[in-house]
Design brief:
Elements: E1 3-7, E2 10-12, E3 18-25, E4 32-39, E5 46-51, E6 57-59, E7 67-72, E8 77-82, E9 91-99, E10 107-108, E11 112-116
Parallel strand pairs: 2-11
Antiparallel strand pairs: 1-3, 3-8, 4-5, 4-9, 5-6, 7-8, 9-10, 9-11
Length: 118
């Protein structure tokens, strides 16, 4: 059974930082592309960024330079370091796994709330 469990969300003031974690089980983590997405109230889910099996990363323009994704293939965990947070970053953040060894598979975590407010 595949499980992706996010943690680290919370309330932070504008300009602050948070670090989200996503612990994966039930997949070959090192052979999976890991991504972070977010969904704000009334909006569609959108990509934050991805980290590939070779650790290369891509980010959406609206977080580039502020957010960093990393992975620990020993702990089967992917991280999202968020700095210089803005109120518009408020959303539920979701972890996503795309195992490269099974075409077309896609798994989601339950999400963690991030609220940026003074």
């Amino acid at each position: 059974q595949v499980q992706l469990v996010e943690s680290g969300g919370g309330l932070v003031q504008p300009g602050g930082s948070l670090r989200l974690s996503c612990a994966a089980s039930g997949i070959i983590f090192s052979d999976s592309v890991m991504g972070w997405y977010r969904q704000a109230p009334g909006k569609q889910r959108e990509l934050v960024g991805v980290i590939r099996t070779g650790r290369s990363t891509n980010y959406a323009d609206y977080v580039k330079g502020r957010f960093t994704i990393s992975r620990d293939n020993v702990k089967n965990t992917v991280y999202l370091e968020m700095n210089s947070l803005k109120p518009e970053d408020t959303a539920v953040y979701y972890c996503n796994a795309r195992p490269q060894y099974v075409v077309g598979t896609n798994y989601w975590g339950q999400g963690t709330q991030v609220t940026v407010s003074s």
